[in-house]
Amino acid sequence: MAAVDHPSKTHDVVTDHEYDGIREFDNPLPAWWLWTFVLAFIFAIVYWIATQSLSYQRSDQAYLSHKEEMVAYQQEMAAKSVSEEELVAIAADPAAVAAGNETFQANCKACHLERGEGSIGPNLTDGYWIHGSSPKEIWSTITFGVPAKGMPTWGPSLGDKKIRELYAFLASIKDTNVPGKEPQGVDASGAPAK
Fold it and tell me: Whole-model pTM?
């Protein structure tokens, strides 16, 4: 089959490629396509520089700042969901203390040992506390953890009921002075451990 010449395409160069009687033209790409490609390439370079070294570092810092504000806000809202009176009342309930002991043995024993005498984590049976000894401070430490010190955030995984029961158990072993890890933090009056 012979190639068909079009009167308007007489300036096109035909290559020597042929497949099933079809011959290939050797035409340049359209100018609009080439400019689109060049502009996309330039945009990609400028975008990469901007996102990797300029504005995104500032936005990362802003994100971290907003993240810290959000965490503080969430903690404040959660702390309003429980009162000191509720925590003191649940600490007096033997069933809550027993349920809290089960939760403690399942989740906290690895760091605080079976009786709360401390290993990796601090001794929970003395009168000294690193992150506060009031009922709400202890509840907050359990709920939100101290990730910088390795204390997990237990609130999402345990839920409010188990956190309150766990607090009840900790209140029951507080000031029992089981021999173990040396005291850390401060006591209720603010005096540091010796």
Answer: 0.62
Comparing CA positions, the residue from 109, 139, 103 lying closest to residue 121 is 109
Fill in the amino acid letter for 153: T
Task: Note the pLDDT tens digit of each residue in 76-121.
Answer: 776 677 888 888 899 899 999 999 999 999 999 998 989 888 888 8
Answer for the pair 169, 104: CB distance below 8 angstroms, yes or no.
yes
Statement: residue 155 has pLDDT above 70: yes
Closest CA to 112 of 126, 93, 98: 126
In 3D, which of 125, 159, 154 has the Cα closest to residue 142?
A: 154
Count CA within 13 A, CB hemisphere, residue 123: 19
Domains in the chain, start-ordered, CATH in brackets? 1-54 (no CATH), 84-173 (1.10.760.10)
